[in-house]
Ionic transporter y4hA (Streptomyces rubellomurinus), 366 residues
Amino acid sequence: MITKLRAAAAQWTVVVPVVSFVVLALTWHEDLPGWVVGVVACFLVAAVLSAVHHAEVIAHWSGEPFGSLVLAVAVTVIEVALIVTLMADGGDKSSTLARDTVFAAVMITCNGILGLSILVSAIKYRTAVFNAEGTGAALACIAALATLSLVLPTFTTSSPGPQFSTTQLTYAATASLVVYGLFVATQTVRHRDYFLPVTPEGRVLDEEDHVSPPTVRAAGLSLLLLGVALVSVVGLAKAVSPTIESAVDDAGLPHAVVGVVIAMMVLLPETIAALRAAVRNRVQTSLNLALGSALASIGLTIPAVAIASTWLSGPLVLGLDPAHMVLLTLTIVLGTLTVIPRRATPLQGAVHLAVLAGYVVLAVNP
């Protein structure tokens, strides 16, 4: 029975990217009625799920921590494409979209995914055990890039408002890309063992203990389908984006909620992957996914929107407001205190989730 279910799931993830691409071709640059937008949204979600599935297949073939890296980059490519697509159509109204989406991704990953993973693992195994060296390095990079890219613009004076000048934006984009590249090199080459799961006794696990890895042919097919799914996601997101923005405006919610919706949409499948790892007591894999996604979101999105700003007509606002800077500071301090002991209880997971809940409340009711 289990074998049949797996086979059905495999067939589903092969068909969905292709069908989603066909739907994209049929709806491209068309004025869509409401019911068609609903259908397109369903295919968009299905394409995201299939993309993450194929990223996981590639991840299983390559092993940790390469697996978490593939998944984080795949999700971030989706996020960056959605941001640039919406900014291209939104004008001045979308000037804060990149900031809102990146900050939402940081809050969701560093508090939501991290908190849920710790909570699930600690409830099942009493304590959640992870590697402080790798987790601390990722958290340090997030703290530095988030401050340089999202906090400093509020205090600079070369440009009016919480914006970077061209020189400052070039620096922020370059620093983000360089630091993220150095982190990837540290994670995958020089100190790979810092990012591998550990046992409660501190022994590093350098092998998978469940399903045999896929063949090279299966991994290659997943790589191809991952590309098709990502293209479909970008195009279908462009089709449904006016409806998302209209729904937010009609509900009387702040425009920042659009960024929260985008981040939640692209990070939901990754949340599921992290929770699966936490259930198997591989919390380090969960934290690789959470913090790796936050770091990729900053390290890849800031350079992408910096380049896009050269042809986009609207301004690019990156600076956070005071309330969000407080939440960012709290997240970094709390994350540091969680990482240092190398193990956590359900209490730490619940505290992280409380911070995420506070962020959501302020997003809806600032």
